[in-house]
Each structure stands twice: as C-alpha cells, then as structure tokens.
Amino acid sequence: MKLERVVYPMIRHATLEDLNILLDLDNDIEYSEMENIIKLERVLVYENEDKLIGWLRYNMFWDHIPFLNKLYILKPYRNKGIGLELMNYWETELRAMGHYLAMTSSLAEESAQHFYRKLEYQDAGSFVLPGENLEIIFVKQLGQV
C-alpha cells in the first residue's frame, strides 16, 4: 500500500527564495523594497500543496504602526476564507510583537473596503492623490494600549 503525502495549507513568512515569484505576481513594488521587507519578515505567504496562492505585505506607518499595503489571493482561490486566515494570522503576530493598532487602505471603488469593515477596521479618513480616486484609510484596535 502506497502512502499518500498529505499537504496542508500553510501560512509562513516569505523567504528570499519566494522573491522572484512574489515579484512576478505583485507589480506594485520594486525589487529592492520587496527584498527589504522579506528580510524584515513583513511578508506572509499562504501556500497550499506547496504552491503560493496568496500573500500579505506590510510596512510601518510613522515608523511604528503596522500598515497593510497588500493582501492578494490568486483568482481561483478567492472567496474561500484565505484572506481572512491571513489577516487573523497577521493580527495575532502584531499583538505578539506588542502592536495594538493596525492600519490599511482601499480605493473607494474596491470591494476590499467591505472586507476590512467586516474585520472591524474603522474608517479613519481619506485622501485623493493627483490622477487617482478616493483612498479610504482604515484603523483597527488590536487590544489594550
């Protein structure tokens, strides 16, 4: 009887081995910046059957408030709870690091704004860059300050 290898979904920090695949999929970031935030452990990847199917990357607003820059799930895997799993994992990590506030943003016409609101992110303002549409800023208290 042949034993089958069972592979479970996994969330982990990206490594430099993930750099090229992330850059192939994510056109919103420069090579050197992606390399830097991977080294800072600010990129989480979601794998299933050894295939990267989603990621979350963040930086620090005002150098001390985690700001989610990108949450992306490949199209065939959307609406299956993967984004929620990544967000929960990220928020748990932030709390463990002593962060009690998280931020993100969404264009007003994007459906992501509804996702963040369901996760208890609160509208905190908005702005418009030249040639762009309205960007909504969201914040969430992660616990006691």
Automatic annotation (TrEMBL):
Keywords: Transferase. Residues 9-143 form the N-acetyltransferase domain. The keyword Transferase applies. One of its GO terms (molecular function) is acyltransferase activity, transferring groups other than amino-acyl groups. It comes from the Bacteria. InterPro entries: Acyl_CoA_acyltransferase, GNAT_dom. The keyword Transferase applies. This is GNAT family N-acetyltransferase. It comes from Erysipelothrix inopinata.
